[in-house]
Amino acid sequence: MLKLNAFTKVTKIVIPSSLPYIFTGLRLSLGVGWMVLIAAEMLAQNPGLGKFVWDEFQNGSSQSLAKIMVAVLTIGIIGFLLDRLMFAIQSLFTFSSNR
């Protein structure tokens, strides 16, 4: 229909139209991966934010709740920054109608 060869169809039509979906999957998997990393740190007792939250939860002192809330906020901010970084990379590679 377009009288294009297979390579041109793939590079000019298929890849540019599929990139937003690919980056959406990457952003979702990055978020899930971040959650799994924190959960694995809690369970395996690896050093990191997950272990810190678990240790403070087990500690039960009066300062523990504040430390846990700060750690959870930090985890959320890092997750948000990872998502924004992936979105910035997506905007470099995909065409947006808003430009």
Detailed description of the structure:
- This protein has one domain.
- It is built from three helices and no strands.
- The chain has helices at residues 6-44, 49-59, 64-93.
- The two termini are 29 Å apart.
- Give the N-terminus to C-terminus distance in angstroms: 29 Å
| Overall geometry | elongated
Q: In sequence order, what are the helices and strands, one letter per element?
A: HHH
Approximate strand percentage: under 5%
Count of DSSP H/I helices:
3
Number of domains: 1
User: Which parts are unreliable, with pLDDT below 50 for 5 consecutive residues or more?
Assistant: none
Tell me the helix content: over 70%
Mean pLDDT: 89
Radius of gyration: 21 Å
Structural class computed from helices and strand pairing: mainly alpha
Kindly state the number of beta strands. 0
User: How many strands, what sense, and barrel or not for the largest sheet?
Assistant: none
Question: What is the compact description of this entry?
Answer:
This protein has helices at residues 6-44, 49-59, 64-93. By secondary structure, it is mostly helical.
Summary tags:
3 helices, 99 residues, mainly alpha, 81% helix, single chain
Q: What topology does this entry show?
A:
Layout (H helix, E strand, L loop, with lengths): L5 H39 L4 H11 L4 H30 L6
Helix pairs in contact: 1-2, 1-3, 2-3
